[in-house]
Amino acid sequence: MTAQTPSALPFRDPQLPLTKRIDDLLGRLTLDERIAFLHQFAPAVERLGVAAFRTGQEALHGVAWMGPATVFPQAVGLGATWDEDLVRRVGEAVSTEVRAMRARDDRVGLNVWAPTVNLLRHPLWGRNEEGYSEDPKLTSAIATAYTHGLRGSHPTYWRTAPVLKHWLAHNNETERDLTSSSVRPRVLHEYDLRAFRETVEAGAVAGVMPAYNLVNGRPNHVSPYLEEHLRTWTDEDLFVCSDAGAPSNLVDSEHYFDTHEEGTAAALRAGVDSFTDHGTDGSKIAARVRGALEQGLLTEDDIDRAVRRQLSVRFRLGEFDPAADPYAGVEDFDTPDHRALAQEAAEQAVVLLKNEGGLLPLAEGTRVAVVGLLADECKLDWYSGTLIHRSTPLEGLYERFGADHVTFAEGVDRVRLRTSAGTYLTVPEATGAEDEVRGAEGALDPALLAGRTDLPPLTADADGTELALVDWGGGVLTFRAPDGRYLSVADDGYVRASADQPGGWVIQETFRLEPHDNGHLLKHTGTGGYVSVAADGVKVAARNEADPEVFELAVTEPGEEAVSRAAAGADVVVVVAGNDPHINGRETEDRTTLRLPEHQERLLRAARAANPRTVLVLTSAYPYAVDHTDLPALLWTAHGGQAAGTALARVLAGDVSPAGRLPQTWYAADADLPGLLDYDVIGSRQTYLYFEGTPLFPFGHGLSYSGFAYGGLSCRTDDDGVTVTFTVTNTGDRTADEVAQLYFRAVDPSVPRPRRELAAHRRVTLAPGASAELAFHVPRTAFAFWDVTLGRHRVQPGAHELLVGASSEDVRLTTTVDLKGEPAAPRPVRAHGLDAADFDDQRGTEIVDRTKTSGDAVTPAGAGTGGTGELLFHDCDFGAGVTRVTVEAAGEGEIEFSLNGGPVLAVLPLTPGTSGPYDYRTLSAGIEAAGVHDVHLRLRGPLRLAHVGFSG
Questions:
Q1: In terms of C-beta density within 10 A (0-12 exposed, 13-18 middle, 19 or more buried), how is residue 435 classed?
Q2: What is the pTM of this model?
Q3: Any idea where the Fibronectin type III-like domain is (predicted)?
């Protein structure tokens, strides 16, 4: 028999059903080939004509890490647009550029790791820039739009295959691979799962990526929720890709398993299909899988299940049907449409927070002083592509108002660093490399500067170089030479002026001044070494390897002086403040405060003192707490990508009326924040859903240059839900967008419920005097909450208030509807007992893993140091009576049982076990209880309580 050529094999036949094609290809792969497919870099199978495949192309707000690409606003900025149509178009542009870049460079992958749908629960999270909102409804709406754009509209073939990040309850970088998020069932189902679920159910998601952290004591990479929840939401084959290095973390840092064979097998059985570990080297993962097979920890069926899901994605991407793939050969890259869309997105993302006295928009002919550390910056973040075009606020204002009407003062401190020998640090010219260092127009070339070792290192001489010093807060400093080059440390340890911006996975451009004797040591944050001056140049070394230099910091001009001069001569001052996305808040680093860095506060005070007509523009990846008492105007925008400056200038000038809305609460002070690791949004009253204080600015807030009136509210209720209709009218004299928002709340909830909860929204454009009638259908299921007594969602019968307005606090119209539902009932504890994690309230406890594969238990927080905790279960029905209480628990300590806050009725002591934390034992004690009561349990010591039962 003549062997078939690869092109004639059945899996190449597009007329066959997808499942048969996958079966055919899977059946032709050897075991070794299938195992190799489990790594991120799946090798080619040349005998079958199957190309190599790489999972994971970063595409959060443009194509990242692959060179020049269109750069759109950060994800939190896209969330601030509240505009699904815009975000869908951004997704289309990004995925089109992925395809175009793939055609030129096969390193570019079509399995894109975007969007991030982690909820922005805590504003100090370092990766706040990557999410869309603190609200699950808004997050899922924006994420669904982006994934639809990434996927494309063809019924069979996908332009790219989006993977959602990061599953699950992930909001801290601090020890992110070690910390466990304690997530009670209500928070799990009403909050954390919801953004993922609604996006997956919309049908444009190829898979998810588990997060580094643990949830309820169990690493996300072995989460039973992948099968119990995620894969029940769709009929598609969802492809689960691990985060980088996380498979090894299961053993190396988390110590959850004793061997890598155990960890790899557990992750594969839990539903992880692709292992991102050890870079491009797949041999270590392959060896672990083979070892797990040999030890009986895995079967070939486990491997085939994962490979099948990868193949499903590859078929949907058209890999095996190049002639039929509608996206093959796409060349649309950096097109005029993409550039215009980047500007439109940046304009829509601007949020006007305050505008007293009509200071904005700026009139024609206004003399503007633009000042601040970000006034002439167009910052990128870790997930940005390389800019092809860039626009800073200064450039945008020059373009809009004319260079003769704009003055500029960056506001950096000018300093010299004097050595103990009386010399000063000096930056040599980049002799012999000028043409490479600077492009045709004299601009620094970022591709050539970062990490260079061929440029001369710093020296010390009698004159020295005046450096620009920026204090980014928390003592973190950058130094910049007069020609714009940042001081940086390369692998050889020498300090050079060799970077256009701070950047990289480990930032090499940041330093700290540490007081020492009568001066300061200069510590390099990237390596932890100290700066010393040697005959061959300035270098960084460990303190015990070289004598660190003791510097005297001589300030030749404080930044405030330049700001004051510029502000005093202008009609209006625009202070541009905020963050550098690579410093003091980014992946691997959480923020420590909501406050602006002191340096930037000084500049703001100087500007306001010199000119009260001051506008503060916060350009940042996250919220700040700023004192705006005597500030007439305040705007916020996330870092806006390549068109940020043009967009900001057009908003300031009134060419565009701002209509961005805050996607998360802006708190007034650090004291308003919960603990970074407190994931119980209900119990600790987090986000706008539960926060009972007064925010600096509320969720959904944003002003306009026009005014809008709301009216004509009507509701129609049926078995499917509620249809809400109202009218929005532009009462101003200019065309503008309004974001109409619909919220609801249960009037008399039986359990703690949100103060108000977003049900729907719409961004509309209205001409002066024009009206739009908006209609929203809110499904009955949207009003449900997770009832821990039933283990499912339940709609509470009774009154629910509907609130319509311009923000969560700016409510213009209200009405009340009466919903049919399922009445609350006491817990049937005699029949079913109590799962410990299904508490109604708690104090001093956390949820942990019942076993390594499934289930939850409860332990006192700090149990290892003899902690205590309490659990409360409301309305427990003991029927005609019970005479015994039984607990299933592990560890050691004791459990006290009481009713209604009364005396202790039983104490169940747990003596030390012998088989570790999962050695559950059953203990019982006599009690007398009948009827309905609240159950109180007090836990003492390092124990795990899984279940409480009753009998007799």
A1: exposed
A2: 0.96
A3: 738-808
